Amino acid sequence: MAYEIDATHDPALESWIESAQDPESDFPIQNLPIAACRLPVEDDDDDEDTWIEDLVVPIGDKLLNISEAVRSGVLGGGGKYEEDFDSYIAYGAPLNAIGDPDVTPGFRAELRRRISRLLAKDTKDLRDDKKLKKKLLLEREGADVIPAFQTQDFTDFYASIHHATNVGSMFRPDNPLLPNYRWIPVGYHGRASSVIRSGEPVRRPLGQTEPAEEGGAPGFGPSKRLDYELEMGFVIGRGNERGIPIAIADAEEHVFGLCLLNDWSARDIQKWEYQPLGPFLSKSFASTISPYVVTMEALAPFRAPAPERSGDDPRPLPHLDSGPNREGGAIDVTLEVYLSSKEMRQKKLEPVRLSRGNLKKMYWTVAQMVAHHSSGGCDLQPGDLLGSGTVSGPTRDSRGCLLELTWDGDPFASPPVAAPGTARTPIELPTGERRVFLEDGDEVILRGFCEREGRRRIGFGSCRAVVQAAPKI
Amino acid sequence: MAYEIDATHDPALESWIESAQDPESDFPIQNLPIAACRLPVEDDDDDEDTWIEDLVVPIGDKLLNISEAVRSGVLGGGGKYEEDFDSYIAYGAPLNAIGDPDVTPGFRAELRRRISRLLAKDTKDLRDDKKLKKKLLLEREGADVIPAFQTQDFTDFYASIHHATNVGSMFRPDNPLLPNYRWIPVGYHGRASSVIRSGEPVRRPLGQTEPAEEGGAPGFGPSKRLDYELEMGFVIGRGNERGIPIAIADAEEHVFGLCLLNDWSARDIQKWEYQPLGPFLSKSFASTISPYVVTMEALAPFRAPAPERSGDDPRPLPHLDSGPNREGGAIDVTLEVYLSSKEMRQKKLEPVRLSRGNLKKMYWTVAQMVAHHSSGGCDLQPGDLLGSGTVSGPTRDSRGCLLELTWDGDPFASPPVAAPGTARTPIELPTGERRVFLEDGDEVILRGFCEREGRRRIGFGSCRAVVQAAPKI
pLDDT value at position A411? Predict the structure, then answer.
């Protein structure tokens, strides 16, 4: 099943919610991503705070409570999808059960169509019902929005060949890009418990770092090389039976949608620990995701050919290759990183943009990652999070982490601007502060959006967190 | 808190369940591990099979249903622990909620004391109540026993220096033991979804393997080097707040108990994929655990000093070092691997033992692994599974996987018996069959037990699975 462009993508479509027409809004009626929202339960006698987690769809500066919309009878109801609306939407988050094998085929597309219809300019059901609107519409600003899926397993890939080459040059100067890179979407298992929501502060980790001299004792203390990684997260909507690989032709059916992902990394801890079994504590202290999952249906107008393979690039093995993947396996998402220091916020200065890249330039597509992940029989589950790996492009301003961005080495410069790993160039902030890696109080903000001629721009909202000081030792 | 030896460990203690006195039984009254058991719900009108998952404790050849025991009033009831019995035991599996911060301190020890008392020879409450016995006691043989905890995250360590050196010699002949090994309990994130119960078959994975010649295309097909890994699993019973490390002095309080773990590994897939981010699909097709978790309380009489550090071994950094850990951080568990081929089972031949090792010889202790894991702020959660890594000792017959066992290279032999990685010596089975790696139809069985002079032997049951053919490509 390919995700098709239909009437819900029509750029002329407008909503009766005015703010959705703002051309700058991430959330026009053509988008309709899904999140959850914590809502206090008011009629509770208990002393403890209690809440429910309803499913919501952002529209302009509002949130539509779609769980309550089903319960109130304006969404779902009747027809072959009635049970699906009752089972998967009315009960609220987590949305993981939408991966059940008995969900009616086509339900996700139908959900999108009905939400689109309910919010369309000419639909009166909700528009003209003041009482119901009060119940179903919330202000987005200040709402307690969280991801709709409970993260099961977290896998992080390494799909940008530019990132892999840059980082490889620093960690293994003689051998930057390993021979398996062009054959395997290289990835590793990450930590699910520390996948956290946008807005939660991130505490600088303590950890062991390389001894100052060979044979000496390693250091232990707060990381001095704390970094972000600009990534896209792919949320699995449907799993596979353990032992049975997913064919590349079916791979995208298993993906529910995309969110922003900041895979925080402590580079000094990583350098000392990562051999031979890969990154561990340098990553597992936190990974931040944005709450809004933009569905694969919404992304249909923004597909792009997978990057062309040429020169050293072999044709992928058959289980990772298909015509549709070559022609439209990539997704055209512009991704940006912004930084705001504590001093900048105190002086009311706007965050500065550090880089801008694009997901479509990744060496491996989401279908290839899903097909590879399941090729050995590993069972994916609804709610699994797959990270793309750092989204870095070929140019300096498209490098998706500070490790690459403040590094003088540039494998594409000839002669090289510096011997790899020998020098670092700080970033200047508008306050005169300088950054090589992150400082306590820094806020990192990821943004993403899709733009295309003749299409309404859609966005991912933001993924943000402030760095807190390490715990005292 | 240290786990103390008390009256429940008294070797003279006997149960009114006769089979528990069998000196060969893994489950005397001194053991009392915890598992869950699927029980059909009979009064259900629905066509579908439904069941409940009650908590059980194996005793001799029986299972005591402790959830039903609480519901029936012979366990729990009254006193300061009443709510704990109701909240954590009466509802059945999963047992993860026992990690709640509001569990009454001492509840786990009290649970053990009360079960011990209920089963002790002189306690009449259950012994003399035929009707209740019928309800609470099940035959262990044929029961659908499963782990009591839902696996959250799975982390696999690499704590045997013998295993690390052997495998390092094969994968990196020039550089077998990396400089971080003696400083860091090296580990990596594993896959939680494919942690499966003993008895479930394991399907041979498909995967990419190294090109036959440099620059050539990799192969893709069923793994030709399928292996087991003899490990111990540590089940986390209580988590930590994200960002806040667990001190080594407190580390064992966070561990509920131990089970057997077979971390199946496809060596040919591993060799090609593992650089630079570690093992991925070569491990994530399946990891089998035994259902019975032997509690830290039960293991109190079987503690041992951590292996002495000498020669090249540095003193661990302070956050990984403590007097109590040096004096009693290790656990004396004998671990064995048995193999039974399809032909052997057809000819009714007993499984053959391939190796025998001991957990106490691991370079890193469970307290060190827990302290390290949380040192960067990663939040452990109840139900997390920590694997020890392959338990291999210094001798050939204590090597915990076929990769080491059938390999001629022996870093301790002088002169070496073969150039590392160049030759493999098959194992002869009683049928005349030979094994270098696992064949379809092979059953691998792990066993473990604790024995000590003046103490009643306790065991872990078994962890077993049969290898199935790979799916057709």
Answer: 52
Residue A468's pLDDT is: 98
- What is the reported pLDDT for B135? 97
User: A381 contacts in B (CB within 8 Å)?
Assistant: 193
Would you place residue A76 in the very low, low, confident or very high pLDDT band (cuts 50, 70, 90)?
confident
pLDDT at residue number A455: 97
Q: Which residue, among A174, A240, A284, A319, would best test binding to B if mutated, counting the most B CBs under 10 Å from its CB?
A: A284
Q: Report whether pLDDT(B81) > 70.
A: yes
Contacts of B233 (CB under 8 A, 6+ apart): B258, B259, B260, B261, B289, B385, B386, B387, B388
Annotated catalytic residue within A163, A254, A372, A373: A163
Calculate the CA A188 to chain-centre distance: 17
pLDDT attached to residue B414: 53
Q: What is the pTM of this model?
A: 0.96
Considering the candidates B163, B254, B372, B373, report the single residue annotated as catalytic. Answer: B163
- Cα–Cα distance measured from residue A137 to residue B118, given in angstroms and rounded to the nearest whole number: 57
Distance from C-alpha of A122 to C-alpha of A133, rounded to nearest angstrom: 15
Q: Are B314 and A217 within 8 A, CB to CB?
A: yes
pLDDT-derived band at B194 (thresholds 50, 70, 90) equals: very high
Query: Which residues of chain A does B208 touch, with a Cβ-Cβ cutoff of 8 Å?
Result: 180, 183-184, 317, 375
Q: Which residues of A274-312 are buried (b: 16+ CB within 10 A; e: fewer)?
A: bbbbbbbbbbbbbbbbbbbbbbbbbbbbbbbebbeeeee
Query: What is the H or E stretch that residue B112 is in?
Result: helix B107-119
Residues of B in contact with A372 (CB under 8 A): 281
Q: Which helix (H) or strand (E) holds B117?
A: helix B107-119
Active site residue A373: no
CA–CA gap between residue A22 and residue A298 (Å, rounded): 18
Pairwise CB contact (< 8 Å): B471 & A281: no
B301-329 average pLDDT score: 95
Report the distance separating Cα A149 and Cα A194, nearest Å: 14
Please name the residue of chain A whose CA is at the shortest distance from the CA of residue B314: A217
Q: What is the pLDDT of residues B256-283, one digit of tens each?
A: 999 999 999 999 999 999 999 999 999 9
A218 touches chain B (CB under 8 A): yes
The band of B46, judged by pLDDT with boundaries at 50, 70 and 90, is low
Inter-chain CB proximity A220 and B278 less than 8 Å: no
DSSP letter, residue B34: B
Q: Which of A220, A279, A377 sits opposite B317 (nearest CB)?
A: A220
Question: CA of B206: which chain A residue's CA is closest?
Answer: A376
Query: What would the DSSP string read from start to end of B403-441?
Result: HHHTB---TTSSS-SS-TTS-B-PEEPTTS-EESS--TT
Q: Which of A151, A154, A208, A364 to mutate to test the interface with B (most CBs of B within 10 A)?
A: A208
Taking only residues 8 to 27 of chain A, the set having a beta carbon closer than 8 angstroms to any beta carbon of chain B reads: none
Looking at residue A364, its amino acid is W
b (16+ CB within 10 A) / e for A338-372: bbbbbbbeeeeeebbebbbbbbbbbbbbbbbbbbb
Q: Any CB–CB contact under 8 A between B285 and chain A? A: yes
Interchain proximity B214–A179, CB inside 8 Å: yes
pLDDT digits (tens, 9 = 90+) for A256-301: 999 999 999 999 999 999 999 999 999 999 999 999 999 999 999 9
